[in-house]
Amino acid sequence: MQALRRVFALNQNASWTRTVLATQQKSCLLSSSSILDIGIGLSAEKRQIQELALTFTQNEVAPHMQKWDAEHIFPVEMFTKTAALGFGAIYCKEEHGGSGLSRLDASLIFEAIATGCVTSSAYLSIHNMCAWMIDSTGTEEQRAKWLPQLAPMSRLASYCLTEPGSGSDAAALKTTAKSDGNYYVLNGSKAFISGAGATDLYLVMCRTGADGPKGISCVMVEKDTPGLSFGKIERKLGWNAQPTREVVFENCRVPKSNRLGPEGSGFGLAMRGLNGGRVNIASCSLGAAHASLLAAREYMTVRKQFGKQLAEFQALQFQLAEMAAQLVSSRLLVRQAAQSLDSGDPGAPAVCALAKLHATEQCFDVCNRALQLFGGYGYLLDFPVQQYLRDSRVNCILEGTNQVMRMLVARDIIGRLGDA
Amino acid sequence: YIHIINKADMAASKGLKILVGCKRVIDYAVKVRVKPDRSGVVTEGVKHSMNPFDEIAVEEAVRMKEKKLAGEAVAISVGPPQSQETLRTALAMGIDRAIHVEIPLAQLEKLQPIHVSKLLAKVCESEKPDLVILGKQAIDDDCNQTGQMLAALLDWPQATFASKIEPSQDSKQLRVTREVDGGLETIDVSVPAVVTSDLRLNEPRYATLPNIMKAKKKPLAKMSPDQLGVDLQPRQEVISVEDPPVRKAGAKVESVEDLVGKLREKGLVK
Fold first, then answer.
1. What tens digit of pLDDT does each residue of A38-68 get?
2. pTM for this model (two decimals)
3. Closest Cα in chain B to A34
4. Residue B270 domain-assigned?
5. Candidates A2, A26, A86; nearest CB to B208
6. Spatial separation of the C-alpha atoms in residues B266 and B269, rounded to whole Å
């Protein structure tokens, strides 16, 4: 701390920014405030798991966050290390290499990793979602073949639902899978696919039957299958540490044995995958907000104007208090959603939608406020808050837009239109 | 107390039994603050973790098990109830079982290496380890005493600041490389012995999720200083704890003559 002040006083340029960042990265997450305790309400056992994820993140993820964003690096080696800890298939059964843990454990892990890189945590959660879809719905052969590869992340997975013509209206998807003996022939394209081109297995929701959700099946397509190709890498506001591309199918022949579950069950499977996916992506938002809030607090104890630390101005103190309310309320709601999934609560999908809606919006606002508290420095790419902001912005959009989340929540409150 | 192991057995036997000491300390990255009453530092609500040198000691014990040099590894921690979390971490890294010597809160702040080494010596009487590995020092008090005191109490050889531990050439002893001021010193010690770990001994592994789950089933025994018959009377009294003085600004000089002139002014040079 003293070193920070001294350097700032002597030298008000780039060298100060580096010192701030280095100190921040290490001590940022060690808040001694009980409100901001990332382990709030957790048992000693859950804290131990969270501790592991946080330590790993501080050592192996956070130091590279900036570089991965600037140079658009998809950190496959780092994912392999997370998988070695058991983070590759957190809530898959242990039989084929899963960790056999709960959705709550997964939420803690994704939140922790997101404090060091939102994008990487988000991809990890997508991979976990795909592994679970195979684990929960696959045949014994499919599970025995794929989980031993997905759990250690020696093979990576992508989830393909959205198309250029169908985002929120997911059931209107047009990619067809026509039956041809023991094969399906896929034609169509998927849009905005995370990891596309860099991953090995694509879980594709495609049309094997009539229009509407009941005509959709989930088919696994392996990389290098003839007829599978990719569009250009999209240039994005954030999530730069992950390639996002169109996935194109042109008479792509896939064995029927790659279908997950019966024909016509694909939409339901996709939606069940998304329930967990929503908790996970909301958890990533929590991590971003947590890191941003602590960074802002740290900055406010260092920066002085008008002869006082920023932390002494009441207006700014009130900002921190409001940000804490946003973060902690989101955190508790997300963990509740995870627990309702774990307990098999039939109302879980609505809780997940609510948690996703609330956390992604509130946490983005926390990042935005944190950026403001940094003043001019907040706008510089040298400082991490702008990356948390950019990376968490898309969380309000994917895995179901927050507008769709509102639809789901309202439906739960009022009941389906036309239902008694 | 003397415990003699048949030295010829070391290579062929089930392996050494290792006792590893772990201390729960304030996390290295925390900004430590002095209490307003200057009686100590703020520990409540502050993040704690396993002393980094002890993590290295735990890692070494687990590696020796993996190399079949050791058969059983037991972790021990002397401290408050929360020391159990530290022991759970050790178990999750691969230690077989743990012992917690619980110190009541009133006596905790006054606990010194002399007390800890006596407690450990008592435990060694019943556990009969072949090797005790401790961190060379704890990052809260930086004492660097417990290992040495323990060896003296037990009348065992000691090899402190270890950067490498391996069997000796004839496999009847341990060959330990020590980091000393003059460089590296290599010594052979017979077992049982006390070794303290230095920074470059190894890089500790992360626990894995499966190991964290397995650790829940590993035995964790509790003991009290009374049961061990050790008196925790403090030998020292802390009078006050203060921040180091704020560093004053220096002055830049333009030339060697200026520098010598300034040194003369301050009476540091004739």
1. 999 999 999 999 999 999 999 999 999 999 9
2. 0.89
3. B45
4. no
5. A86
6. 8
